[in-house]
Write a structure and sequence with these properties.
Elements: E1 3-7, H1 11-22, E2 26-30, H2 34-43, E3 59-61, H3 64-68, E4 73-76, H4 83-90, E5 99-102, H5 115-122, E6 127-132, H6 137-141, E7 146-151, H7 155-165, E8 170-175, H8 178-200, H9 205-226, H10 230-233, H11 236-247, H12 252-261, H13 266-273, H14 278-292, H15 298-308, H16 313-321
Parallel strand pairs: 1-2, 1-4, 2-3, 4-5, 5-6, 7-8
Antiparallel strand pairs: 6-7
Helix pairs in contact: 4-5, 8-9, 8-11, 8-12, 8-14, 8-15, 9-11, 12-13, 14-15, 15-16
Length: about 350
């Protein structure tokens, strides 16, 4: 049995706390908000996870020192925009070598750092790992079959996390590619906004399939250029997470995109969703990374123009469709005269 502190009382943190308690671990949830902590402790249910009871054995507190001390594992489950500030608050109570598993998805706009890099900068003496994949909190809380990947610096740490989280309905794979896992999880939220916009405009399955397929091409080009592994983007935290975020009714990124496709502004859409829309916070960083590494990001570029430049959603989709002609994949060769190799003009 492990002693675990889940830092963050949103839907994902709460769902993971319930999962870990079911696995037989001793779990504490830390909340930054006094009223929310009181509500969760009293009602034993999260308002955005109806039907899922928070077991009485899970303590809920706003005392970070109390929550962290003596814990084998710290699960950092706050929205991406609060990761740095929360990690800084954790520093006085951190034990050297303490395992911190980040489960948020995003890129810090001001530094273009992944969240694991942010945590390592703020908590240099911790053992930082990640857990990611196609895993909506609503389904994990209900015990529906789900698969994720944990990335860590060592195989020993990855297998330790695997043992703690895995059960008959929550399958965990291991990987050394922390960077690729994080980039897939962050960038797919931007593509999901585009998929939602297409839905809001009334476009069909063909359009969504195109956005998912070309979206993973953008993510993979950038991710590999940054040092991520191609295989990671073909897996659960690449194409898997992208599919579920673009298609699911639980996806807040897709939902925000739908609202913008229907005519809402970005601000209006975020207010109506009433939860953090991570893709909005990652969009500028994704575009900046594409420019930094010399990679073409046409979907990300159009999403940014819709979000921050007032561009009409329909115009953005139309521009994607009338771009210059391209080959689908570079390096493919036609057999026959000249044995000519097709070279992509996209870099």
């Amino acid at each position: 049995m492990a002693s675990i502190d889940v830092i963050g009382s949103g839907t994902w943190g709460t769902a993971l706390a319930v999962l870990l308690e079911r696995n037989g671990h001793q779990v504490v949830i830390w909340s930054a908000m006094e009223e929310e902590a009181k509500s969760l402790a009293g009602k034993r249910v999260h308002p955005n996870l109806p039907g899922t009871a928070i077991p009485q054995q899970i303590r809920i507190t706003t005392d970070l020192q109390e929550a962290m001390e003596g814990k084998n594992l710290l699960v950092l489950a706050v929205p991406s925009v609060f990761v740095r500030a929360t990690a800084a608050r954790m520093k006085p109570w951190l034990t050297p070598g303490q395992l911190v598993v980040n489960v948020a998805k995003g890129i810090e706009e001001s530094t273009l750092m992944t969240l694991a890099q942010v945590i390592e900068e703020e908590l240099p003496h911790s053992d930082v790992a990640v857990l990611s994949g196609p895993s909506h909190a609503e389904e994990v809380a209900k015990g529906l079959p789900t698969t994720c990947v944990t990335g860590a610096r060592t195989q020993e740490t990855a297998e330790r996390i695997q043992d703690i989280f895995m059960n008959q309905v929550f399958r965990v794979y291991t990987s050394p590619d922390i960077l690729g896992i994080e980039l897939g999880g962050a960038l797919k939220n931007v593509i999901a906004l585009a998929a939602g916009i297409a839905d809001g405009l009334g476009y069909g399955d063909n359009t969504k399939a195109a956005l998912i397929t070309r979206g993973i091409a953008e993510i993979t080009r950038l991710g590999v250029a940054m040092g991520g592994k191609f295989e990671t983007f073909c897996g659960l935290t690449g194409i898997g997470d992208l599919i579920v975020t673009c298609a699911s009714v639980h996806s807040r990124n897709r939902r925000a995109g739908v609202l913008m496709g229907e005519g809402r502004t970005m601000k209006e859409a975020m207010e109506e969703v009433q939860m953090v829309v991570e893709g909005v916070y990652s969009a500028k960083a994704a575009l900046a990374l594409g420019k930094k590494y010399g990679q073409s990001m046409p979907i990300v570029e159009q999403v940014n123009q819709v979000l921050f430049e007032g561009k009409a959603a329909r115009e953005a989709v139309n521009e994607l469709m009338i771009r210059d002609k391209r080959v689908e994949a570079s390096g493919l060769m036609w057999k026959g005269y000249g044995e000519r190799t097709v070279e992509s003009t996209e870099k």
